[in-house]
Amino acid sequence: xxxLLLCCHLARVFIAVSAFVWYETACAQGVGAQExxxxxxxxxxxxxxxxxTPSFYRTTHQPNAYDLNLRANLQSHAxxxxxxxxxxxxxxxxxGYENTITFPFVRLTPSVQYATRGFLGGSLNAEIGERYFGxxxxxxxxxxxxxxxxxxxxxxxxxxxxxxxLPNTTLSAFQIRDDRLGTGQRVFHIVARIKTDxxxxxxxxxxxxxxxxxxxxxxxxxxTGVSATYDxxxxxxxxxxxxxxxxxxxxxxxxxxxxxx
Length: 261
What we know:
With about 260 residues, the chain is mostly beta strands. It has one helix at about 1-30, and strands at about 50-60, 65-75, 75-85, 90-100, 100-105, 105-115, 120-130, 130-140, 155-165, 170-180, 185-195, 200-210, 220-230, 235-240, 250-260. The relative contact order is 0.12.
């Protein structure tokens, strides 16, 4: 019932997002007028917490791109819809769902995601422990065209560890590594989430990546990037610098703002 309630609420806003997507698609086609964090969990067991995130991507040697994502949380359930567009070159509508299942000392999060162009993917992540915890995960896709918004390998395994030993702080370190396509892609993250008061939180993610864009590439890229997020009450802003986005020579700057309601 909770999953059904969540989907019904999402359907209301889906109409508005679909209208936006239709308008953007129509403009592009000449019809008509010619781009691993804690999510809000509702305190009311029947209330849904929404998060709306518009993002802008500026990449060397590529047109600018943007993404609009709407996420909804109802207790342990989360669902999202989004739309990505890069000029007239590439656009994609996506939807997904995940559920966090809690056991003593263990949290399991299975998820599934669908996107236009025939993409289908899923993942299973586990957090084992409380004050000190281990992180494990695996992801798989059907290898259809997809713009990867987490900028890590999708067909990959995750292993890491973290701690909540410091007051109001969560520290974690983990690696995500391609284990399917032979690209040698791996990304090592160090993430700090610090809640400075009841209304403010900082998140810093420093990552090192290396690997090839495809298995047949001769070029192996290596570089260090950073992402910083500032949350204040219902609002947040995020900026990231990625020296080798999607394991290419291109440098991307990502800017996102958002609202929780």
